[in-house]
Design a protein that fits this description.
The chain is built from 19 helices and no strands. The two termini are 15 Å apart.
Length: 514
């Protein structure tokens, strides 16, 4: 458990740094550009290469690559593992060259697919131009994802986790400096994305050398390891396709709503991703290689123990985080984004999206740890099936709820409901496959975490009512927000201590004992 906490701490620190820089970036975006049709165009254009990134590299490639690479390291030699990695990289480079060329050429068609509701030609053309500039970002970030697969398997977690910091730095430079050189300043932000992507790659180079990796162009489709890779890759690609179609459906539906709806969803998603990125993705990045190792050794007892401990560790963080976002989400948005072009009305509409998406935060966090468990078992079919169910449910509920007064927030509620259903199905299937997982032993700990979170909620609600968040000065809002978050956090930890929640003791011992 200590090694898990240490590795997770490295990733969490790097991710937290990235998220802080990301919020500075988003604060500047909101301040400089607000939430308009132009920002909707930018976020659609930025979403497209990121979607392909998850589809091609970070998702399908990584989840198919790590189990096989780890298996070769354990059961064969490092040389065999390196040859496999070289062949995968060679294939990836060819795919990226073709894909980026097609993406740039067919940008109008792709943007039309992503934003069918755009009825303003100016915004549509802006999205197309921005997409053509940013699409090559896919090349850089896909190589980073490949490096992550290699480095995480060798227990090097820092470089891949810290890489997004450079993307944020590049975008900040684009917002503040490069935008001044263009009639449409958003072009400067797009160029900043490319600069950030290049810097991300540079960071990986020394760590890849430490891992002993050498670049060699080698394509051998007859290699048994490559055949196994493609066998896993097929369902993984299909599963990621379903996931991305789900995301695409929400963007398409939001494009039919009022201008700014896509931006409101984007800003609310950034707050959710702060929690998921720092705690959930950090643990997920660490446990996939470890689960793959236990699977390769056929040690299912340790596999299940690691899975359950990871779930409880994540709930220790995400349950109170969900309480914070639903309770004092508006004050947080007010402090982070509400200035200049971003009005109180924009803040309220963003909070509505945040509230309903935060209701599914716990489900999303469990999903992001349960899905890697299936990948570690070399089962990519089950996540595909459940993702398909989730996609259909999200679309149907989204069409229904967006027509209510909830509008764009209804789309987030639809996603929260469908994710919860998907998680329940996955856990049932995993239990049937592995037997009892051991959740009965930790139910009391989860109930204690919920009780501590409720106490924290009461404290934060009381303090939040002391200030008018629309009329107060920024410094006053910042101080009160810091006070209520601090009081809520302290209350949560004190109650966890009184109730003797084991996760509290483990974290404190790790922080304060050598």
């Amino acid at each position: 458990m200590n090694s898990l906490i240490k590795s997770t701490g490295i990733v969490a620190f790097s991710t937290l740094t990235s998220r802080i820089m990301g919020f500075i970036r988003d604060m500047l975006m909101a301040s400089y550009f607000g939430a308009t049709g132009a920002t909707d165009a930018f976020f659609v254009a930025f979403k497209i290469p990121n979607l392909f990134r998850r589809f091609v590299a970070e998702g399908a490639l990584t989840i198919s690559f790590i189990p096989i690479y780890t298996d070769l390291l354990i059961n064969k030699t490092q040389e065999d593992a390196q040859k496999f990695a070289q062949k995968v990289l060679s294939i990836l480079l060819l795919v990226l060259i073709v894909l980026i060329g097609l993406g740039v050429i067919f940008s109008p068609q792709i943007v039309k697919l992503f934003a069918m509701g755009f009825d303003d030609d100016n915004y549509f053309n802006l999205a197309v131009s921005l997409n053509r500039i940013m699409f090559p970002y896919l090349f850089f970030v896909s190589l980073v994802a490949f490096c992550m697969g290699v480095l995480n398997s060798h227990r090097y977690f820092f470089a891949p986790a810290f890489a997004p910091v450079f993307l944020n730095v590049g975008m900040i430079v684009g917002i503040v400096l490069l935008g001044n050189f263009f009639d449409v300043p958003l072009y400067g932000v797009a160029i900043g994305v490319l600069i950030g992507g290049f810097m991300q790659i540079i960071l990986q180079v020394p760590y890849m050398r430490k891992a002993g990796f050498k670049i060699k162009f080698n394509i051998d489709l007859k290699d048994p390891a490559i055949k196994r890779f493609f066998k896993l890759l097929g369902p993984a690609v299909f599963g990621m396709a379903i996931y991305q179609i789900n995301s695409l459906n929400l963007t398409i539906l939001a494009s039919f709503l009022d201008s700014g709806s896509i931006s409101y969803i984007y800003y609310s998603d950034r707050l959710n991703e702060l929690v998921l990125g720092v705690f959930v993705v950090s643990i997920g990045s660490v446990i996939l290689p470890q689960m793959s190792q236990y699977s390769a050794l056929d040690d299912m007892d340790k596999f299940k123990e690691l899975y359950v401990k990871s779930i409880v560790a994540v709930l220790f963080m995400t349950i109170p985080a969900a309480v914070i976002l639903t309770t004092v989400g508006y004050p947080i948005i007010s402090v982070l984004f509400m200035r200049n072009e971003f009005t109180s009305w924009d803040a309220m509409l963003t909070y509505r999206a945040l509230f309903y998406s935060a209701l599914g935060l716990v489900s999303v966090s469990i999903l992001r740890l349960t899905t890697p468990a299936f990948y570690a078992l070399k089962d990519t079919k089950t996540p595909v099936i459940t993702s398909a169910i989730s996609m259909v449910l999200t679309l149907l509920l989204g069409l229904l709820l967006m027509r209510t007064p909830l509008l764009h927030a209804g789309l987030m509620l639809a996603l929260s409901i469908s994710t919860t259903v998907q998680v329940i199905i996955l856990i049932i299937v995993l239990r049937k496959r592995l037997g009892k997982l051991g959740f009965s032993k930790v139910i009391s700990r989860i109930l204690k975490i919920i009780a501590a979170s409720y106490c924290s909620l009461m404290v934060m609600l009381y303090i939040s009512k002391l200030l008018d968040w629309d009329a107060a000065e920024f410094i006053s809002k910042l101080l009160v927000l810091a006070a209520l978050l601090g009081a809520g956090g302290i209350t949560y930890l004190i109650v966890c201590y009184v109730l003797k929640v084991p996760e509290f003791t483990v974290v404190v011992n790790r922080l304060f004992k050598p």
